[in-house]
From TrEMBL:
<dbReference type="Pfam" id="PF00208">
    <property type="entry name" value="ELFV_dehydrog"/>
</dbReference>
<dbReference type="InterPro" id="IPR036291">
    <property type="entry name" value="NAD(P)-bd_dom_sf"/>
</dbReference>
<dbReference type="InterPro" id="IPR006096">
    <property type="entry name" value="Glu/Leu/Phe/Val/Trp_DH_C"/>
</dbReference>
<dbReference type="InterPro" id="IPR046346">
    <property type="entry name" value="Aminoacid_DH-like_N_sf"/>
</dbReference>
<dbReference type="GO" id="GO:0000166">
    <property type="term" value="F:nucleotide binding"/>
</dbReference>
<dbReference type="InterPro" id="IPR016211">
    <property type="entry name" value="Glu/Phe/Leu/Val/Trp_DH_bac/arc"/>
</dbReference>
<dbReference type="InterPro" id="IPR006095">
    <property type="entry name" value="Glu/Leu/Phe/Val/Trp_DH"/>
</dbReference>
<keyword id="KW-0520">NAD</keyword>
<keyword id="KW-0547">Nucleotide-binding</keyword>
<dbReference type="Pfam" id="PF02812">
    <property type="entry name" value="ELFV_dehydrog_N"/>
</dbReference>
<dbReference type="InterPro" id="IPR006097">
    <property type="entry name" value="Glu/Leu/Phe/Val/Trp_DH_dimer"/>
</dbReference>
<comment type="similarity">
    <text>Belongs to the Glu/Leu/Phe/Val dehydrogenases family.</text>
</comment>
<dbReference type="GO" id="GO:0016639">
    <property type="term" value="F:oxidoreductase activity, acting on the CH-NH2 group of donors, NAD or NADP as acceptor"/>
</dbReference>
<feature type="binding site">
    <location>
        <begin position="177"/>
        <end position="182"/>
    </location>
    <ligand>
        <name>NAD(+)</name>
    </ligand>
</feature>
<feature type="active site" description="Proton donor/acceptor">
    <location>
        <position position="80"/>
    </location>
</feature>
<feature type="domain" description="Glutamate/phenylalanine/leucine/valine/L-tryptophan dehydrogenase C-terminal">
    <location>
        <begin position="141"/>
        <end position="346"/>
    </location>
</feature>
<keyword id="KW-0560">Oxidoreductase</keyword>
Length: 347
């Protein structure tokens, strides 16, 4: 089957298959859309069962980056790359150098950064072969605090629409995952008087949240059953699915995780259940805003202002979804397409 007939093909501008025999590199770079600017998106390393699975992932993820950056108001397009391989056994300096040469061959159409299983150290090696890298330790650094801030503001915007006030004091928030983003997100909410229930596979961070944030700890499978106003997925993808929706009692879903909905159909299902869902790529855009500050030369004030803008973007999405009685994810996609169309027309 050709890429053009692939179900996830969405007018991608360029899809590059990268192979380097000496290092064993097998990667796919997908540049989805450069209407707004050069495409930016992380590189993911995953032991895909097949190259077809890798292609599906990179086509879908690169399209998501176009929408994410457009709605975050960034002068950047959407791209993404996947390296096919086992992150524990297949990484080598030669592999990342070979990959860097492929990134460089695109002449700046694609700027790469970290994603799942890729660390800043790996990107530093890529950066020895190309200047089209972002999110390195020596430049923008860790995006997680900005992702946490944007997600916290997203909860406030959702609370305003669902509960009539964006004050989170007294709101019962169930947080799944207390990692780089989740812990800071929890801290911001606890500071405002939210009542937290948390879980993580790492007992150390759970104990810390209990002690420092006054959170209640539950087991990783119990999180779906607790009494909550807001469910905040901050760990895994696809936790909003047919099974968990039978258990989640929240009226708001707002968290930092990527790909929260198991399928696109769950956008409509949560709406019909009366749950207000903050579309994942909108609420967690703080990270890409942070990383793009390097590629787009934003000052730290401008970056922070753009992260704060996530509140207004979600406010707009929630208002339009209510007025038109439509799912929030559908509205977010539509707004992103409107931004791209206006730019293409030169407005
Ligand atoms: N870091 C960013 O700036 C950023 C930006 C956008 C989106 N995201 C998304 O936000 C989520 C969190 O990112 P992060 O950077 O904090 O990652 P992280 O790896 O630092 O934290 C993830 C946490 O989830 C925990 N976890 C794993 N499996 C779990 C389970 N079954 N139940 C509960 N907890 C579990 C881990 O122990 C870890 O503490 C991810 O989905 C990520 O893709 C992160």
């Amino acid at each position: 089957m050709s890429v053009f007939d692939h179900k996830e093909f969405d007018n991608h501008e360029e899809v590059v298959f990268c192979y380097d025999q000496a290092s064993g590199l097998k990667a796919i770079i997908a540049v989805h859309d450069t209407t707004m600017g050069p495409s930016l998106g992380g590189t993911r390393m995953w032991d895909y069962a097949s190259s077809a699975e890798a292609l599906t992932d990179v086509l879908r993820l690169s399209r998501g980056m176009t929408y994410k950056s457009a709605l975050a108001g960034l002068p950047l397009g959407g791209g993404k790359a996947v390296i096919i391989g086992n992150a524990k056994t297949d990484k080598s300096p030669e592999l990342f150098k070979a990959y860097g040469r492929f990134v460089d061959s695109l002449g700046g159409k694609y700027i790469t950064a970290e994603d799942v299983n890729i660390r800043t150290g790996d990107i530093e090696i890529v950066g020895t072969q190309t200047r089209y890298v972002a999110g390195t330790e020596s430049k923008a650094g860790d995006p997680s605090p900005h992702t946490a801030l944007g997600s916290y503001l997203g909860v406030k915007a959702a609370a305003k629409h669902k509960f009539g006030s964006d004050d989170v004091k007294g709101l019962r928030i169930a947080i799944q995952g207390l990692g780089a983003v989740g812990y800071e997100f929890a801290r911001l909410l606890a500071n405002d008087g939210a009542i937290l229930t948390v879980c993580d596979v790492n007992q150390e961070v759970v104990d810390k949240a209990v002690k420092q944030l006054g959170a209640t700890a539950v087991g990783i499978d119990e999180i779906y059953d607790v009494e909550m106003d807001v469910y905040a997925p901050c760990a895994l993808g696809a936790t909003i699915n047919n099974d968990t929706l039978k258990r989640i009692k929240a009226l708001v879903i707002a968290g930092s995780a990527n790909n929260q909905l198991a399928t696109n159909a769950h956008d409509k299902i949560v709406k019909e259940m009366g749950i207000l869902y903050a579309p994942d790529y909108v609420i967690n855009a703080g990270g890409v805003i942070h990383i793009s500050s390097e590629a787009a030369n934003f000052s730290s004030e401008e970056t922070a202002g753009r992260v704060r803008g996530i509140y207004n973007t979600l406010d707009l999405i929630f208002s339009r979804a209510t007025e038109e009685d439509r799912p929030t994810g559908e509205i977010a996609d539509e707004l992103a397409r409107e931004i791209l169309a206006a730019k293409a027309r030169g407005n």
